Amino acid sequence: MSQLEQMLMFIKVGIVLAGLLATVPIMLFVERRGSALMQNRLGPNRMGPFGLFQAACDVVKFIFKEDRAPGHVNKFYYTIAPWIAVIPAFMTFAVIPFAGSLTLEGSTTQFQIANLDVGVLYCFSIASLGVYGIIMAGWASNNHYSLLGSLRSSAQMISYELTLGLSLVGLMMVFQSVKLGDIATAQGETLFMIGSVAIPKWGVFIQPVGFLLFLVSVFAETNRLPFDLPEGESELIAGYHLEYGSMRFALFMMAEFINMAVASALITTLFFGGWQLLPLFSVAVAWVQSLNLIPNPDLVQVLFQGISFVIKVASWMWFFVWVRWTLPRFRFDQLMNLGWKVLFPLGLLNVLVTGFLIYKGVL
């Protein structure tokens, strides 16, 4: 690896880490202000303009608050459980492309930390490890409420992982690849024309049922409302992290927000064109290139691709907040019935229909 490639790799890793870490305080603020907006309240408005520094104060509080483990817990597993929950959340983002390719000094760089041949399978395998941290936290807390929350989480995540995987089989059959970079690039093609308007070959247009299945399953996998049964306050107080405080609790909260970011990035990459430019952005790219402010025109293209990707991901993260303060929580039996009796059979049917349409040459 040349010195330039090493520098670009460090830059890509730095961008991803900084973006994911910045997601946590930003989403803390958005959750509070968003819920206040929907409930006709003010929300945080004391610390800084519009309460912008409230999340920073929370971070300082978590860092300096006394971190003391209760005497009745299994301290080793109690301590490592938050790390087992948060580390896979960071690792999953490694295969998600957040911009196109850039050629510098004859070397082509993909804006993706690891361009694996099995990108989709890597995401599923690493993301599924997070449940071990939740199970470990519930068991090591030596608390009935925590244990029940961790058992709910394991049953929920295992049940909906089947539908999550099935929802993407049809998409992979159409694009004939499991590389996220290839899937994002293929969505730049035109699916069909409506007058003078080109409809792109986004996954949501060629696999609408798969998109809905993936969306519902992602909410269940991230333990967000209306699927937050592992943290059900009305019956479990706080669920699997009941005995946690200070930075250990902050790590669980960080894992949830980063999982939201990864889920939003996957929805964007698989179904909404990934880093493909938003409408009218091509006009903005041409205008900036005509100003000659940046000597490399490809760099301008990459910058706007990254901006398009961030806007799409931010929109889906706001959707997570919107749903949280709109829909009530399911009962656990309703959760299981939906997963096994509705979504799973629908996922199998979607794969069969997709295979038939490919055989007939429609897709």
Essential attributes:
single chain; 363 residues; mainly alpha; two-stranded antiparallel sheet; two-stranded antiparallel ribbon; 14 helices; 4 strands; 66% helix
Report on the structure:
The protein is mainly alpha-helical and 363 residues long. Helices cover 66% and strands 5% of the residues. It has one domain. The strands form 2 sheets. A two-stranded antiparallel sheet has the order 1-2. A two-stranded antiparallel sheet has the order 3-4. A hairpin with a 2-residue loop joins strand 1 and strand 2. The longest helix has 36 residues. The protein starts with a helix and ends with a helix.
How many β-strand stretches? 4
- End-to-end Cα distance: 40 Å
Give the spatial strand order of the biggest sheet.
1-2
> What portion of the residues fall into strands of 2 or more residues?
under 5%
Structural class by sheet pairing and helices: mainly alpha
Order of helices and strands: HHHEEHHHHEEHHHHHHH
What is the assembly state of the chains in this entry? single chain
Entry summary:
The protein is mainly alpha-helical and 363 residues long.
How is the secondary structure organized here?
Layout: H1 3-38, H2 54-64, H3 75-92, E1 101-104, E2 107-110, H4 119-127, H5 130-140, H6 144-175, H7 180-186, E3 190-194, E4 197-200, H8 203-206, H9 208-221, H10 233-236, H11 246-271, H12 281-291, H13 297-324, H14 332-359
Helix pairs in contact: 1-2, 1-11, 1-13, 2-11, 3-4, 3-5, 3-11, 5-6, 6-9, 6-14, 9-14, 11-13, 12-13
